[in-house]
Amino acid sequence: MPLPTARGEVSGALLDALVREPGGATLPGGRSLRAADPYGDDAQLALYVCYELHYQGFSGVDDAWEWDPDLLRARQVLERRFLDALRSEATAHDDPQAAVAGLLVEPADGAGVSHHLRDEGELWQLREYIAHRSLYQLKEADPHVWVVPRLRGEAKAAMAAVEYDEFGAGRGERVHAELFAELMTDLALDPTYNHYLNATSARMLAVVNMMSLLGLHRALRGALVGHFATVEITSSPASDRLAQALRRLGASEAAVFFYTEHVEADAVHEQVVRHGVIDGLLTREPALAKDVAFGVDATVLLEDRFAEEVLGAWREGRSALRVPL
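The structure corresponding to this sequence follows.
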């Protein structure tokens, strides 16, 4: 996978450094790191690139960059500003049960992206949405694996059970990332990992970056559990709407299968995560309750902002991608 195109001073300096050997390159300076908008294109792309070194990496980039201490120090500045912004703007609950309760009720007049695509969306809009989502779906469940060794007892067992399903229950062709790649192919999209990185907006990058941020830091294990619970609880109804959208727009059943699989699987996962992972974690570590609630709230905030951006663009008849398909 090639490096993406820079979106500002910070990401530009980072990308210039990564094509050189660790220790012999100039990384973004503290002033530019602190000045970058924590939600903006420049900071979010820089974070995404830093995190990607822990996943598949980039062609032409030395693997030693993954744990380069200077790069980690620069990344830490961006992470702290992103996390501070989320804590300031997203926090709405102290009690995880109250935070989760708000996810369990589907509004009768829902107006999100999946509602739009089901009821009136056009094929070009569906393809754009899938391109946006590919940044996570082609690495589905990977950020969440990092929390497993930080859990104990029931929480660990329940989390591992859900992840086992996400990774195909032992069958390579049923790995959810592979199923999503097949969906993309059916919609005439390029299923290459991170192919649409240059086209994806900062708001989608923030959604994916938050998963990596929470997963990579043990101190944020509670927030990662809250985030994962939000994903699993909201996935089943949204997946059902997206399956209906795909059928309405003429997609094959092979493509629809990605979402129908999630309708069934995530309905079960919701119960496992709520009662096994959350309850199991808080039984052992009750002090993490506020962190779990924060994980829920931060996920809702970023998903809502992404949906607002996408629907706003579509209502104006324009592409929601930085580079239209």
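The chain has a mean pLDDT of 95.
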